[in-house]
Write a structure and sequence with these properties.
A: mainly alpha; 8 helices; B: mainly alpha; two-stranded antiparallel sheet; 2% strand
Amino acid sequence: MKKGYWNPYLGGVILGTMLFITFLIASQGFGASGTFSRLTAQYLVDSDKSWLSNAYVASYFKHSDSALANWTVLETVGILIGGFISALLAGRFMLSPDKAKSYPASKRFFWAFVGGTIVAIATRLARGCTSGQGLDGMATFSVGAWIFMFATFAAGLIFSPLFRKQWVDKEDN
Amino acid sequence: MENLILPLFKNGFLSPEANFFFAILMGISFGFVLERTGFTRAQHIADTFYFRNLAVPKIMGVTIITATTWFILFAYMGWIDLSALFTPGTYVWPYFAGGLLFGLGMVMSGYCPGTAVAGLGTGKSDALVFLIGVLVGMFVYFNLYDMIMNFANSTKFGVVKIQDVFGGNNYTSYIVTVALEVGIISFLMFLQKLSNNGRN
């Protein structure tokens, strides 16, 4: 890890304790992907009520008039603020994308976008992302979380050669 | 197991409003730690898959070991009802397929939803583009839902914990979980040494 970032083991102890406290109080853990699913559903229903005939979209409006009145949605707002505060205090604001030096920024943005759409679809099948399914599930001994995490890691490794140029400069090997 | 007050919300000791306030507070802490540990950098996440930097799996593994250790201590003391904690149900094939897609999307983009939100807080332009992609992806999924509904809801087993598969109790699950995390981190560090292109 680059200078200035926390030691990973220390970071894990802090994050694990926070995850524990979150479960202790809210009875559930961290999440993120659901927020974007709910945002999209709310936007679609606001612009055209006929979206309520979509079974997936409708499931968000069963118990509430708003898809956004939800614990994870508010927590996600917090994540944005927390990232902002931490970067502010550390003097670590950065606009430019992460990539290998020689890799064109336009291609980097293209893959960030396509990757985002694929990740979104993946989270709907997996009922969560690395937070809501991975961390929360593994912390509560769920077998499904392990299936998801093993598949995620395996696919990351299998497909990594295709994206090597984006992440690794030739001179760094 | 009577008179347990933990977890607070499930046992009625916390109003929904207070819980929403707590959501924002914990989100802020989560986002703060994601930035401090370098999770907001797509490069750090992608580096995992090239064995250049194992901070991400190390943090995740230690996070799980720490959280489950707290759980098991509190359960042993009789302070918390572990079965009241929200646990996602298991859908075997959808989770496997979802994981494969997720891994592909992650090495492609260098983000997952939570880290991208914190990354956007730090100003990252690639995080913004990623999250726009996520919104579009949700739209695509809603449109495909009728077609894939059967698959998405297949092999549904409800909440399945490790002890339900291997027998035993929460302690069994705890031991298996810690062993898996320690094993995975050690194995990755071994692979990193073999590939010899990482610094630490």
